Amino acid sequence: MKLVRLVYYSQASRSMNLSDLRNILETARSNNSELKVCGMLCFENEFFLQALEGDRETVNELYLDIADDPRHEGATILSYDEVEQPTFELWKMGYAAGSESFYELLRKNGQTEFDPEEMTRAQALSFLKDMAGNQTDV
Ligand code: FAD
């Protein structure tokens, strides 16, 4: 099995409330644990930033499904790498939104406003790793 990590960003196609986000996370968490995919999803300022880690074919197919989801648009891959070990908690999908620590860690990673379009791949990955340790309950 070839383990890969894909990081992408996108924009919500309409305004998202808590129940929309719960919906996305419930599906993601139940599907991903079956697919043995893990990662981290951040949502703020109408932007999504997500890391997906798992078997190469599984991640590729899942990304195509996600990118096709009408709840967001403009999905853009920021990085795609083979990895030795998963970075994120095994077979779980973490979640973080605009908390105080979200903005603190965003500043540490070089931004004041959450805008993944302006992030380098290194900034995005470092921010996702930081946020995995500072998750938001939904
Ligand atoms: P369902 O959830 O029943 O979905 C069937 C179809 O309907 C899909 O094409 C879906 O895109 C669409 N759909 C579902 N709910 C809605 C809605 N409320 N409004 C409009 N269309 C809808 N899925 C994962 O498995 N893992 C992930 O990590 C993951 N991350 C996501 C991140 C984001 C930002 C978004 C927007 C979605 C994410 N999803 C994720 C959901 C994914 O896009 C698909 O909905 C899901 O994989 C399909 O699950 P399902 O087969 O159980 O079908």
Structure explained in plain terms:
The protein has 138 residues and is an alpha+beta fold. It has 4 helices and 5 strands. The chain has a 5-stranded mixed β-sheet. Strand 2 and strand 3 form a beta hairpin. The longest helix is centred in the first third of the chain and has 18 residues. The protein starts with a strand and ends in a 6-residue tail after the last helix.
Provide a brief overview of the structure.
With 138 residues, the chain is an alpha+beta fold.
Structural features:
single chain; 138 residues; alpha+beta; 4 helices; 5 strands; globular; binds flavin-adenine dinucleotide
Main sheet: strand order: 4-1-3-2-5
Which ligands are bound?
A: flavin-adenine dinucleotide
The biggest sheet, with number of strands, parallel, antiparallel or mixed sense and barrel status, is: 5 strands, mixed
Distance between the termini: 33 Å
**Beta strand count:** 5
Structural class: alpha+beta
In DSSP terms (H or I, runs of 4 or more residues), the helix count works out at: 4
Fraction of helical residues = 25-40%
Mean pLDDT: 95
Question: Oligomeric form of this entry?
Answer: single chain
**What's the overall geometry?**
globular
Order of helical and strand elements:
EHEEHEEHH
Strand content: 25-35%
Q: What is the alpha-carbon Rg in Å?
A: 14 Å
Low-confidence stretches: none
